[in-house]
Amino acid sequence: MTEQTPIQQMFREWKAVHTEARTCPDEDSEATTEEMVRIEDAMLEVPSVTAADFAAKVIAYTSYGDFGFTGDGVDRIMREACELVGEPAKGLEDVCTGGVARHTEVIARRRLEQFAQWIGREDLPERLIDADGAPTDELMAFVREEELCLDWLFLGDVKPLAMAYRKQHSAHALPTVKERVRLVAERAGIEPVALETDDDGAVLLTDELMHFCERADADLGWLASGDVSKMLDAYRKRERETKKFAGKAAQLSQAEQSALVFTLRLILEGGLKLDDAMQTYTRVVEEQRAA
């Protein structure tokens, strides 16, 4: 039975939170992740008493190998590994306090070269880390220009990338489109349309979906991707027409305004055709002005 050292006790807490994090709703994932990181940091502060302690630190820090062995805590773990086997911590003595370790810079350089191959760039920054252990101005200019994630470059942390991808593509996700279809159908008083997807889970533009949009008078761009540009254009156009109409209506006499209201009611409530109604209205107005 493994001795319940302070690290082993913290490891048991970490495992419980790790299990919760894999099953909790998305809205709670950030809190559970922060709790895992808090326990990991606390484990790093306590020296390992046994080999099992050291193994627990590695497991927690890499989340059972799901994440790369990089980051601020690697230096401590590597120093402790050297101490456990009685070897000097070679290559770690030049780490600046609060800065980036040299071995981390080597790994970052490899990631940068890989990224450059993906985007087809050859003019890479010559130096990644300055004398204080901070990213150089040259690197920061490259990062901003190419929208490169520093967390991934130095730490191998893909969470910011995953969250950015999720935010960008959530508008097209099947559950989101289904909810829009439900809302449109509810307001139009019709049944929602069944959605079809391709092998990657993307919603397909089917004849049934097109027909549903026509029946519900829904904007397909918003329904499929959350694009509200067409609706905004239509809203602005209606606002301009409304203001233009209101300006002209203000110039009408009280009798002409009453006649206009009566004409609109004939159209909306009586089902009179627009052309016939406007002809009647024009005739009435002309008669009133002639009198």
What does this molecule look like?
The protein has 291 residues and is mainly α. It contains 14 helices and no strands. The protein has helices at 6-21, 26-45, 51-62, 74-84, 102-119, 137-146, 150-155, 159-169, 174-188, 207-216, 220-225, 229-250, 254-268, 274-290. Helix 1 (6-21) runs antiparallel to helix 2 (26-45), helix 3 (51-62) packs antiparallel against helix 4 (74-84) and helix 13 (254-268) runs antiparallel to helix 14 (274-290). The longest helix has 22 residues, at 229-250. It starts with 5 loop residues before the first helix and ends with a helix. The model is unreliable at 92-98 (pLDDT under 50).
Q: Identify the overall geometry.
A: elongated
Helix content: 55-70%
What's the helix count?
A: 14
Query: Sheet bearing the most strands, described?
Result: none
Number of strands: 0
- Rg on CA atoms, Å: 33 Å
**Would you identify the regions where 5 or more consecutive residues have pLDDT less than 50?**
92-98
> How far apart lie the N and C ends?
108 Å
Decide which structural class fits the backbone. Answer: mainly alpha
How large is the share of residues in beta strands?
A: under 5%
H and E string? HHHHHHHHHHHHHH
Compute the average pLDDT. 79
Search tags:
291 residues, mainly alpha, 14 helices, 65% helix, 0% strand
Secondary-structure blueprint:
Blueprint: H1 6-21, H2 26-45, H3 51-62, H4 74-84, H5 102-119, H6 137-146, H7 150-155, H8 159-169, H9 174-188, H10 207-216, H11 220-225, H12 229-250, H13 254-268, H14 274-290
